[in-house]
């Protein structure tokens, strides 16, 4: 039985991340990068697909756990009849090779502990050869190796010296088990390091004392968090969201992943399971907007460099999503050997959104370039050339249908949000030109901006519903219309905006907001997928933002705090929330959700909510 999505905390080193359960088990970890094959994949299957658990012998979930203040370090505490113990989990920001550190500390009495390690390389598929070396246990398969070390006495079981089968289905070898006892005041550290399998010497991180690594990791996160400019009633929630967004940044390139996981379902048992371990231009730009607003310029500069490298070439080839290194090919495939989270199949690796036409990303990219310029980040000549190139392409294609914000796998449509963001693209290009004194294309861009505005107000407004709708000619509502005042397309006081905000009550589901209405168990006409889904966390936050903008501060605050209440015990949000079963759904932690939380906290503070 899989743990609930909300049972997981995140630890990471700015190049990859692990999902740590309340039972002390790391059930998901891709090494050496976010988008590498997983070496622990129990999250999407069973323990046969890889995990690493450290906990008291025979214990269940920890009694309590928490992040150390302003860090990505997790303390989990167990209490039992023989004593109490704390396990501290973290990944030091990477200097060399990725390393997971687990410090076990006796708090009272004497507690029998157990470490169970069962690596399964290549997305939970390959059983490694495990051998003992001096002071280490090494698991090797193909290009990967994992080195496990401990700094104290313990009994080791389950270490073999011969190669095993290549699939977990053909044999069931025991995990590598380390048994030990900790007493009050005693500490023991376990370290797990990934290295290329051709290296034969113990990796350098194993020589770093745990206390040194722990202090350096805590200092790194506290220094970073101290830069936060937000001061308000929800500072703890904002800080945790910003730390999460930072943790989703791939430091070597500046790319930002949408989530560290793949195929956590939007409907348990259904097919809405996607790989989010990549860099969506939309999510990345919105993340940078939240970080810039909160006082973080270094990330914006790094992301701008990543953007230029990723989108270099013909603007007609602009993709909605890229790999963390800027790679363009992310072929989508299925992993039939993984049964999926609670049986939710298929498990997908890669994402076919690379081949979709999504007009809105032009607006998001140009909006972030404008925000960066406003924040005082100089615009290099090649970035202005990028602006002109993107606008030249958009002027020719903004009238075309696309797959839209929600990456619909059905037929292309004239999505209203896509057209609104085309307007944003032209508007921000004009504003940047004014700031830079570059007005050579202002007439063409202004004409496009005005044409888009006229068309959206004519074709995207439904007089019967008194609301902007999802697409031209359709009466269906879409929560993305809540962003119209936020992006400046129309002022919040415009009657059409106020009516649209009121109309969105039709998307309410037990106090939370759906992306759009679903039409029963069959295939949905818009996205081409079967089944329903939960409410979309970001949409509920957009609703709170729009309520504040239109003057309903009491309901805005209530809506916002309702979302805060469904964060897990360490402050994390997945993509969706099921208010009926009261559980998180979708990939987690989700950048889109935490971006919206930060933006809405700022909006409500500024509105005096």
Task: Provide a brief overview of the structure.
The chain is an alpha+beta fold. The protein contains 13 helices and 28 strands.
Account of the protein in words:
This protein is an alpha+beta fold and 609 residues long. It contains 13 helices and 28 strands. The chain has a 15-stranded antiparallel beta sheet that branches. It is globular. About 2% of the residues have low confidence.
Mean of residue pLDDT values: 93
Question: What is the overall shape?
Answer: globular
Class computed from helices, strands and strand pairing: alpha+beta
Distance between the termini: 42 Å
Q: What profile does the largest beta sheet have?
A: 15 strands, antiparallel
Number of helices: 13
Number of strands: 28
Rg estimate, integer Å: 25 Å
Helix content: 25-40%
Percent of residues in β-strands: 15-25%
Give the uncertain stretches in residue-range form. 161-172
């Amino acid at each position: 039985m899989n743990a609930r999505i909300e049972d997981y905390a995140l630890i990471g080193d700015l190049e990859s991340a692990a999902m740590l359960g309340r039972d002390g088990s790391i059930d998901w970890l891709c090494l050496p990068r976010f988008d590498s094959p997983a070496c622990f994949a129990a999250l999407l299957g069973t323990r046969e697909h890889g995990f690493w658990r450290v906990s008291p012998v025979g214990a269940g979930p920890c009694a309590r756990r928490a992040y150390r203040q302003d860090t990505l370090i997790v303390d989990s505490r167990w209490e039992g009849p023989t004593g109490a113990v704390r396990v501290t989990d973290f990944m030091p920001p990477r200097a060399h090779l990725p390393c997971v550190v687990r410090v076990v500390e006796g708090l009272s009495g004497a507690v029998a502990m157990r470490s169970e390690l069962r690596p399964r390389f290549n997305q939970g598929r390959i059983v490694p050869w495990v051998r003992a070396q001096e002071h280490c246990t090494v698991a090797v398969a193909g290009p990967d190796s994992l080195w496990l070390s401990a700094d104290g006495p313990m009994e080791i079981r389950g270490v073999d010296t011969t190669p095993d089968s290549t699939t977990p289905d053909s044999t069931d070898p025991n995990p590598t088990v380390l048994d030990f006892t900790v007493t009050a005041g005693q500490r023991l550290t376990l370290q797990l390091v990934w290295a290329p399998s051709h290296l034969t010497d113990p990796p350098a991180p194993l020589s770093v004392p745990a206390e040194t690594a722990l202090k350096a990791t805590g200092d790194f996160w506290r220094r970073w968090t101290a830069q936060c400019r937000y001061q308000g009633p929800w500072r703890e929630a904002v800080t945790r969201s910003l730390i999460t967004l930072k943790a989703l940044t791939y430091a070597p390139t500046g790319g930002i992943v949408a989530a560290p996981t793949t195929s956590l379902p939007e409907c348990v048992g259904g097919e809405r399971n996607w790989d989010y371990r990549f860099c969506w231009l939309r999510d990345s730009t919105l993340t940078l907007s939240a970080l810039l607003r909160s006082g973080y310029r270094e990330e914006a500069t790094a992301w701008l460099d990543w953007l230029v490298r990723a989108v270099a070439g013909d603007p007609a080839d602009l993709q909605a999503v890229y790999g963390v290194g800027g790679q363009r090919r992310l072929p989508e495939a299925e992993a039939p050997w993984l049964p999926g989270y609670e049986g939710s199949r298929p498990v997908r690796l890669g994402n076919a959104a690379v081949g979709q036409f999504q007009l809105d990303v032009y607006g998001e990219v140009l909006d972030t370039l404008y925000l960066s310029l406003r924040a005082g980040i100089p615009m290099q000549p090649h970035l202005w050339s990028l602006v002109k190139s993107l606008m030249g392409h958009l002027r020719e294609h903004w009238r075309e249908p696309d797959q839209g914000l929600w990456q619909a796998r059905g037929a292309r449509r004239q999505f209203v949000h896509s057209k609104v963001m085309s307007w944003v693209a032209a508007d921000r290009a004009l504003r940047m030109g004014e700031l830079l004194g570059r007005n050579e294309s202002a007439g063409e861009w202004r004409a496009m901006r005005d044409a888009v505005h006229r068309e959206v107000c004519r074709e995207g407004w439904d007089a019967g519903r008194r609301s902007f709708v999802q697409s031209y000619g359709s009466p269906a509502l879409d929560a993305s219309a809540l962003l119209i005042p936020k992006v400046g397309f129309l002022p919040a006081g415009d009657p059409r905006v106020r009516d649209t905000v009121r109309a969105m009550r039709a998307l309410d589901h037990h106090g939370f907001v759906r992306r759009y209405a679903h039409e029963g168990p069959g295939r949905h006409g818009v996205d081409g997928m079967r089944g329903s889904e939960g409410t979309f966390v970001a949409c509920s936050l957009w609703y709170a933002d729009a309520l504040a903008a239109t003057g309903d501060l009491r309901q805005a605050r209530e809506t916002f705090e309702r979302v805060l209440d469904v964060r897990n015990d360490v402050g994390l949000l997945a993509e969706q929330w099921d208010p009926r079963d009261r559980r998180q759904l979708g990939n987690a932690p989700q950048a889109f959700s935490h971006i919206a939380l930060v933006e809405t906290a700022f909006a409500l503070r500024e509105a005096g909510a």
